[in-house]
Specification:
The chain has 190 residues and is an alpha+beta fold. The chain has a single domain, classed as Ribonuclease Z/Hydroxyacylglutathione hydrolase-like (Metallo-beta-lactamase, Chain A). 24% of the residues lie in helices and 31% in strands. It is globular.
Length: 190
Amino acid sequence: MTVKCFVCNPYMQNTYVAHQPNARECIIVDAGIYSYDEEKELTDYIRQNQLAVVAILITHAHPDHICGRQRLAELYPEAQIIDHNYLSGSSAEQEPVLQYAGISIRCLFTPGHKEDCVCFYIPESGILFSGDTLFRESIGRTDLDGGDFPTLMHSLAYLMQLPADTTVYPGHSESTTIGHEQYYNPFIRR
């Protein structure tokens, strides 16, 4: 799977475009575009690769992850916006599985950084879009409205059950793997 990262807005938030090789459809994960230049870089990539955006997945509703949501909805009106509200009819035990752009996406409810956090897991490609739940050797903060440290620890323990070679694309900073975090993340209980 091809995953292209766009670092956006003053908070250096990662917005991703993901698609299967040679596919004509793609998904966007998070909507952090803030400036004209950021929007142009993302839309140029989509246009140059002749992709149609079929879904916009939102990991949580903090402003740095949704500041471009309205603009992306205008640019790609056919795209389904997937967020916690869209998934609210499901329970954590049910973990909805969505099908977009030829990708099977498992939605993992991971509250703690914020009560509406969702990670998007693509088992066939070994990819996890973790939003602000899990970072490389760190975790999302819990001192903002909706944050809860014990809840986040529970969510992290759940994510650590994924295969060690799962590539993690976080909401900020560089990518990592579950195995790396199991060993090097000081917040992970061993």
